Amino acid sequence: MKALLWIVALVVLLIAGIGVYVVMNSGSLLEQAMETYGTRYLDAPVEVDSVTVSLSDRSAGISGLSIGNPSGFAGSDAFRLSDISVTLDTSQMSSELIVLKDVTVDGAQVAAVAQGQKTNLKQLMDNLNRNIGAAEQAEETGVQSEVKLIIDRFSFTNARASIDSDVLGAAEVTIPDIRLSDIGRQSNGATVGQALKQILEPIYRAVTREMVKQGVDLEGAREDLERNVREKAREKLGSGLDRLTDRLRPQENEQ
To answer: Are strands 59-67 and 46-54 parallel, antiparallel or unpaired?
Structure first.
């Protein structure tokens, strides 16, 4: 019972992009954990202005979570998440698993920096993928073990992105709202890195798509987007032909 009270008592939320992580202690330790794990996975500075936790409402709020640029890129923070709200599911939480019913990031600012065909956002994703692999290997060998996360609903709304290209200059774009569900649910929990990847990847793709529309020639991005369009077109065409074939197929005479 005592252990359960301490589990319910405190939550740490990490978003690098948008990401989340939970601990049981105090607001100051919450900030420290977010900054530590975010920096470790992204190889970029992660800072938090303030954290508030309401046990009676089973909620938490984070103000001013920022993700800086990876090595080799300068300028504004890659992500500035000014308003993050979280609803906890204390009925499913344990010392090994934290369940968040709802996470909402509203009004985020994303600053994409393009140097030639490379971007700060792509570098962050590369760093994240590399460090996820290292963490999974360490967990398999028993070197370390992380608390797991389940996020039932995640919303990234009213976000905007600035683009700073050394070729085309500056531009502003709107990021379509992104809504995800059941992060970590199938595997009965995801690590912080795995949850970050599921959250940051669609944001990265959305911003990259807008950058390509603006004419920024990113390494492999245009080809990937064109291939996805062609594949979807083939799928629709194949589905339409199947329906047409079914209509034209002679029906067997009823006996």
So the answer is: antiparallel
Identify the bridge partners of residue 65 per DSSP, sorted by sequence position: 48, 81
CA distance 237 to 225: 18
Distance between CA 149 and CA 153 in Å, rounded? Answer: 12
d(Cα 18, Cα 41) in Å, to the nearest integer?
13
Banded pLDDT at 223 (limits 50, 70, 90): low
The C-alpha atoms of residue 156 and residue 178 are separated, in whole angstroms, by 5
Hey, what are 21's tokens? 């992580």
- Written as six digits, the tokens of 1 are 């019972």
Decide if 241 contacts 56 (C-beta within 8 A): no
SS3 166: coil
Bridge-based pairing state of the strands 178-183 and 148-157: antiparallel
3 state SS of 126: helix
* Half-sphere exposure in the Cβ direction for 110 (13 Å, CA): 32
pLDDT digits (tens, 9 = 90+) for 12-65: 333 333 333 343 443 454 566 678 888 999 999 999 888 787 767 788 888 889
Of the candidates 18, 19, 153, the one whose C-alpha atom is nearest the C-alpha of residue 80 is 18
Angle at 250 between CA 244 and CA 252, to 5 degrees: 135
Neighbours of 235 (CB within 10 A): 10
pLDDT tens across 68-86, in order? 999 999 889 999 998 889 8
* 31-37 long-range Cβ contacts below 8 angstroms, 24+ apart: 34/62, 34/65, 37/192
